[in-house]
UniProtKB/TrEMBL annotation:
Gene3D superfamilies: 1.20.5.1430, Calponin-like domain. The keyword Cytoplasm applies. Residues 129-152 are annotated as: Disordered. PROSITE patterns: CH, EB1_C. PANTHER family: MICROTUBULE-ASSOCIATED PROTEIN RP/EB FAMILY MEMBER. Keywords: Cell cycle, Cell division, Cytoplasm, Cytoskeleton, Microtubule, Mitosis. This is Microtubule binding protein. Residues 2-103 form the Calponin-homology (CH) domain.
Amino acid sequence: MGESRTELIQWVNDLLQINYTKVEQCGSGAAYCQIIDSIYGDIPMSRVKMNARLEYEYLVNYKVLQNAFKAHKIDKPILVEKLTKCKMQDNLEFLQWLKRFWEQNYGGHEYDPVARRKGAPMENPATLAPVGAAPRAPSSAGVSRGKTPVGGARIAPSANAEQIANLTAQMREMSTHLEGLEKERDFYFSKLRDIEILAQQQIEVLEGQGKDDETLREIQKILYSTEEGFEVPEGTGVDEEETF
């Protein structure tokens, strides 16, 4: 039986000198990258988004993690689409596996997590999309009850109710729009993932035959490109631009 959530979070916090409170916060991928770095010491930590808040930043972290798994021949699927949703069960299962892997492969050497991430603070990632606070009613401080404030008319309660109703409707509309965008994002992400797998499989077949395909290499460059340069797994043969 695997460790409890409390035990795992305590282990992660002690190892990485951070202050996570929930397993779901590992869904950003930053902690996973540094746990692997504590074993091998060769993760390009300058590319890891330690304070990832946006979806594309999460994906950059998982691309770094995938590269590390491939470089060290770690035969474990990384379910990126599930982990990035920051659901407790998916991240709990992956963290339990990662803890066992760490115990089997960590050499007991000294590891300075803060120095490895060059002092970058790891703020606790959000586990849900932030929701704006409800509008507050105007303060009555300094206004006598039952009297009209000097120089202004009394604010009718119905006006506040109407404003709240309008804002609530806007929030519902934005939520519906966001849900549509997330579905569209997931759809295109799955397509890109299928292309990535197909290209890599074909490259491996060609390599086994002593051949190469420049078009597939260019496709890989596009798939692995980020705003910082190229994130290309070792062993693919694609030239990687040094960015750190």
